[in-house]
Amino acid sequence: MFIIFGTRGREVHEKSGQFNCPKCCSQQNTVTDEKQQQYTQIKVAKYFTLFFIPIFSYETLGRYIKCDHCHSEYNEKVLEYVPPTFAEQLASYVEQELKTGTPISMLINKLKAQGLDQDQSTKAVDYIVANNIVTCHQCNMDFLKGVEKCSLCGQRISQ
Ligand SMILES: [Zn+2]
Ligand SMILES: [Zn+2]
Predict the structure, then answer these.
(1) What pLDDT, on the 0 to 100 scale, is given for residue 31?
(2) What is the pLDDT of residues 123-158, one digit of tens each?
(3) Counting ligands in written order, which one lies closest to the CA of residue 156?
(4) Residue-by-residue DSSP string for 89-135
(5) CA of 158: how far to CAs of 99, 100, 143, 144, 149, in Å?
(6) Ligand showing the shortest atom-to-Cα distance for residue 78
(7) Greatest CA separation for the chain
(8) What is the pLDDT of residues 22-58, one digit of tens each?
(9) Do 63 and 76 contact (CB within 8 A), yes or no?
(10) Of 57, 41, 59, nearest in space to 49 by CA
(11) CB neighbours of 23 closer than 8 A, spacing ≥ 6?
C-alpha cells in the first residue's frame, strides 16, 4: 500500500459580521439609508492533505473580506472603515444642492420628501445658509448667496 499526501490551497470561511462596505455605502441614498452589510472573512490557507483530504492547515496565505451583499472583495483593513456620518452626508448634500441653485424653500421640501421632518430639514439648510441669502425679486424665492441666476425665471440675482 502506498500513501498519497500533498498540499493544497483552500478557502475557509473564518467568521462573519457586520461592516461598512465602501461600495454599498456609496450606493446608498445619501439622506435616508444608513445600514451596515454582512461580511464573510475568508482565510486562504495551505492544507496538508492525505489521500486528497485536507487534514490540517499549516500556512495561512492570506485573508480577505467579502461583502455578502455586493460580493466585493477587500483587504482585512476594510473592517476599520468608517463612512461619513449621517450629519456629514446631509450637510454636503445640502451644500451641493444650494450651490447648484436649488431655492431654499424647495430644498426643504425635497428633504421632507426624503423622510426628514420640518425641524431637521430647516436646521440642515440653516446650517449651510446662515445669513447668506439672496432673493429673486421676480419670484420671491431665496437662494444661497453666490447663486447668480434664478433657476425658476432665469433672471440675474443681485448679490
Ligand atoms: Zn457591499
Ligand atoms: Zn426668479
Answers:
(1) 45
(2) 999 999 999 999 999 999 999 999 999 999 999 999
(3) 2
(4) HHHHHHHHHHHTT--HHHHHHHHHHTT--HHHHHHHHHHHHTT-EEE
(5) 16, 16, 11, 12, 9
(6) 1
(7) 97
(8) 999 877 654 445 678 999 999 999 888 888 788 888 8
(9) yes
(10) 57
(11) 67, 70, 72
* Domain residue ranges of the chain, discontinuous segments joined by +: 5-80, 86-144
Distance CA 92, CA 104 (A): 15
pLDDT number for residue 33: 55
Report the separation in Å between the CA atom of 130 and the middle of ligand 2, taken as the mean of its atom positions: 21
Residue appearing with cell numbers 482585512: 76
Residue 106: nearest ligand to its CA?
Answer: 2
The length of the chain is 159
